[in-house]
Amino acid sequence: MINLGRRKFLTIGAGALAARATAAESGGGAGAGLALGFDHYAIRAMDWGPAALVGFAEKLEVDTLFITDLDVFESLEADALATVRRLAEEKQLRLLLGTWSICPSSVTFKNRWGTADEHLQLGIRAAKSLGSPVLRVVLGSARDRLTDGGIEARIEDTVKVLRRNKQQAVDAGVKIAVENHAGDMHSLELKSLVEAAGRDFVGVNLDAGNALWSLETPLENLENLGEYVLTTSLRDSAVWETEKGIAVQWTAMGEGMVDWKTYFARFAELCPEVAVNIETISGVSREFQVDTPEFMKAWPKGLPASYEKLRSWAKTGKPQQPAKPRPGQDKKKSDQEYQLSEIERSIAYCKSIGLGRKA
Q1: Among 57, 6, 3, residue whose Cα is nearest residue 335
Q2: Which residues on adjacent β-strands are paired with residue 241?
Q3: Domain range 6-23+30-237+258-280+333-352, its CATH number among 3.20.20.150, 3.40.640.10, 3.40.50.880, 3.30.450.20
Q4: Does residue 263 have a pLDDT over 50?
Q5: What percent of the chain is modeled with pLDDT above 90?
Q6: What distance in Å separates the CA atoms of residue 257 and residue 156, rounded to the nearest whole number?
């Protein structure tokens, strides 16, 4: 397990500030002017409520805090959420809100918040109370590609839910950001969903790590979805070839294979007003046995053209070692230390290439 001590973090932080100063003197880094924040799922093991998350965001000196699960809040009543909003505003922090599947036929859908429509409506009301201009939602996961009718049927069902609730979103001033989540949709499929639902109130939560799960590089994913992006949940990745396909392992920012300077230069052109939110989920590799008939069942129309570029990229990668707790260490404590280390290093790296609007 990577265990970054406080002294080491402060050293990295000082280096990041020096790099930012250099970037400013030379006219700005790759992401100069882009807001920077984090997705709370990056530190999920902490089990922190809104106040603690706001405090951590203040410590990191970021611009945004993306809370992507309604269960983080003790109460979803308007008054309780307004209190959280005021706390964030005092820290000059923009809150963004997210929740989970709104596709009633997805294998991942849960009735925790009622029907799909009721879930979406609740999320919209909560976003309005928090002052979040967006609500992140998901369709499901890669398992939905194997369901009756395939991913096309799940997209159709999701579009119906979105359309039925358009007026509620418009009246609240909240746009819906659908994520490319856990291999459910390729960027071109997600693009079709947004266009079908109505891009006047529906857009994208861009997840660079999840792009590899749908067989595309992060940069190609950005090119396809950039004009639709409302929010982000980004992380670095390593990818390498295996006997039957490729393997992917997510990493802290700057420790994988993504050329972030190129990525954020293009990001700034396509969606300059969108915040860069980091969602580190590192330490575990996943193999995609693309060269097997079993895998192809999820892609009955054939692999997307983007896979060739991803496969070429994988040829340049090397296998990564999984993260492991120290011998005898409590797993919960290990997860907490690891997740804090990953997000702290990632935010420091992002600042070192010019991201973030706070000194």
Answers
A1: 3
A2: 246
A3: 3.20.20.150
A4: yes
A5: 89
A6: 35
